[in-house]
Amino acid sequence: MSLEAIRYRRGSLSILNQLLLPEQLRYEPVDSVERAWEAIRAMEVRGAPAIALVGCLSLALELEAGAGPAGDAAELEAFVGERLRFLLTARPTAVNLGREAERLRAVVRRRAQSPGVTAQGLRESIIEHIEGLLEKDREDNRSIGAHGARHILQRVPEGGVTLLTHCNTGTLATAGYGTALGVVRALHEQGRLTRVFCTETRPYNQGSRLTAFELLHDRVPATLIADSAAAATMRDHGVQAVVVGADRVASNGDTANKIGTYQLAVAARHHGIPFYVAAPTSSCDPALPGGADIPIEERPGRELTHFQDLCLAPPGIDVWNPAFDVTPHDLITGGIVTEWGVFAPAELRQALAERGGAGAGPSPPKSSV
Ligand code: MRU
Q1: At what angle do helices 73-87 and 48-64 cross, to 10 degrees?
Q2: What is the number of the ligand 1 atom nearest to the C-alpha of 206?
Q3: Could you give the CA distance from residue 212 to residue 217 in angstroms, rounded to a whole number?
Q4: Bigger pLDDT: 365 or 222?
Q5: Which residues, 6 or more positions from 224, have their beta carbon under 8 angstroms from its beta carbon?
Q6: 246 and 219 part of one domain
């Protein structure tokens, strides 16, 4: 059975409740935008692309069920805008839902202005646009995997490759295949992966609960390490590249990703190991000049002081629990792996501008690093 974070067919959406993994594999229905908002906020579904997909699909579901004004295209446009604005308040750091909302608003505006459009016609085109996102994400991830694997193999022309990754960027964080885990999978499919080390990713344990589960499920050779073992693993286990995902990439290449990513990049620099960020261009935010402007979500201290009901810290201790950190572009020494190719951070801005913003345009520019 292949794992999937999101199950959708017209009129029905369910998500794998990731709070219950690895113990239970339970799909739960999402029947409204409010329910999607809660699932995203509570991290039943997480990972930048999956958040965007579940948010948008919940809107498609409401539209299919007849929610919103029936008679007037302009009123329907306003309704969609209001639902998207609400969804965007669930979690602040990942930009993918914001980018998809932007694109969707543009589609709706164009369609709403075309002569003779009815509210029903508009409703149908919004649903179709959203449904197309699932397949697009899978395709983008395959491309990211292929570009990243090719780039790494240029540095390692013979034999197997040992990688290190962080958090969960796989099937469970996307529509399928994954971004950084897509690169891992592509190398494995080519018979060139020796092993991937995955960090446990405290405090939410996406690495031990989700990535380890996914890699074991798919029989990819993997070893779980404590976050604090990362530098020693790089030095003692021949790590040849670090590959992580992204929640938002600013136009200078600074990248927000799961807390702990920055220290991995520092350690990789010390050991001369190339550091890659693998993300679809929908994770890029060309409007942001640098990482200092990326909003960083802070989560409840309880995630650090407790494991489920088990108390791990003295009651009353102050806690700082940022969910993400920013890795400065100069530490992204391998490159930024997108569905278009691999870019040096300094080249990303131009690539995005040439393509008219993230995700637009048909012909990919060539890999440039
Ligand atoms: O808090 P999370 O689990 O949503 O954080 C996820 C990450 O940081 C991932 O690395 C990122 O979203 C990329 S997922 C393809």
Answers
A1: 150
A2: 3
A3: 8
A4: 222
A5: 197, 198, 200, 207, 208, 212
A6: yes
Query: How far, in Å, from the CA of 280 to the mean position of ligand 1?
Result: 13
Catalytic residues: 247
pLDDT per residue over 181-200, tens digit each? 999 999 999 999 999 999 99
126 and 163 share a domain?
no
Please work out whether the CB of residue 334 comes within 6 Å of at least one atom of ligand 1. no
Q: Does 298 reside within a domain?
A: yes
For the cut 50, the answer to whether the pLDDT of residue 264 exceeds it is yes
Q: Is residue 366 part of a domain?
A: no
Residue 4 alpha carbon to ligand 1 centre in Å = 16
* Ligand 1 geometric centre to CA of 75 (Å): 35
- The number of domains in the chain is 2
Asked if pLDDT for residue 358 goes beyond 90, the answer is: no
pLDDT tier at 366 (50, 70, 90 boundaries)? very low
Does any domain span residue 204?
A: yes
Does residue 13 contact residue 7 with C-beta atoms inside 8 Å?
A: yes
